User: Which sequence fits this backbone?
């Protein structure tokens, strides 16, 4: 009886471990994103949900700055 129980427990453990979701490695870089100004058509870059600085940029300039951060490895893209 003990052998049967151990066999069932071992097979349940093996099946449970084998059927887990396929997950990739987690990114350690904070995410980059853009925040739109509430009343003007300007944006600022957020690194890890915190503003990089207090300046607001045109959309194209903000995207360029964010892409530079991604290339340098300071953050991961959207």
Assistant:
């Amino acid at each position: 009886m003990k052998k049967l129980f151990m066999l069932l427990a071992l097979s349940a453990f093996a099946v449970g471990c084998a059927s887990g979701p396929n997950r990739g490695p987690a990114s350690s870089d904070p995410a980059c994103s853009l925040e739109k100004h509430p009343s003007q058509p300007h944006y600022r870059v957020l690194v890890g949900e915190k503003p990089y600085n207090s300046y607001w940029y045109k959309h194209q300039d903000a995207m360029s700055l964010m892409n530079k951060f991604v290339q340098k490895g300071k953050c991961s893209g959207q």
Residues 29-78 form one domain. The first helix runs from residue 2 to 18.
